[in-house]
Amino acid sequence: MKIAEPTVERLVQYHRLLEQLVNEGQKVVSSQEIGEMLAFKASQVRKDLSYFGEIGKRGVGYHVDRLHKHISGILSSPRCWSLGLVGVGNLGEALLGYNAFQSDKFKIRVLFDVDREKIGKKIQGIPCFSLEEAPRIIRESGIEVVILTVPAAAAQQVADIVAEAGTVKGILNFAPVSLSVPGNMLLASVDISVELEKLLFFLKHKED
To answer: Which of 2, 21, 64, 155 is the most exposed place for a label (fewest CB within 10 A)?
Structure first.
């Protein structure tokens, strides 16, 4: 089943919201309520959820706990993915301390940097190695996904070094630059400046 990227993004948001509702003890939620809380159309919510076989009862809504478990099953991985992170600067350290990065779906196992003050030490409990050692350490540690939080000028070179390992299946790139990666590797980019520009664009047109 091929799932469009926007649908996956909405599923992640549904899951996060439902987790919150479960913790608050809410038993039932309607597509209208979900839509209002996430700024989606109720029809879009119903379409997304029915696409994966979870149908709510008309006039009643969705059972919160059951829907949460249903979406968890869709999103969950059959194993815990091993991650590496390259670039332990301000952004890299911030991500390590981010609660969303404490998950049973993945674990950041190794760090890489060029700063000799950091190499050979543990940062937030995770060992940091020299970038030069990355291909070997990535292979030995079974790393399949690498997060890049490096300057734009260094990002392509770092991506090439990571690819040398031969075991990396995906890269999450936070550098504001387009990267070229091997055809067998998935690339996802998070460009905060682009997202801000989009927000400002929509705010401008809303005011107009």
So the answer is: 2
Residues 180 and 155: their CA atoms lie apart, in Å, by: 10
Q: What is the pTM of this model?
A: 0.72
pLDDT digits (tens, 9 = 90+) for 87-114: 999 999 999 988 777 777 899 999 999 9
Query: CA-to-CA distance for 165 and 142, rounded, in angstroms?
Result: 10
* Contact of 171 with 148, CB cutoff 8 Å: yes
Residue 160: closest CA among 16, 173, 66 = 173
> Angle 150-172-74 (CA atoms, 0-180°, nearest 5)?
160
Q: How is residue 111 written in tokens?
A: 């760090």
Phi, psi of 178 (to 5 degrees): -80, 135
CA gap 60, 164 in Å, rounded: 54
CA atoms within 13 A on the CB side of 47: 9
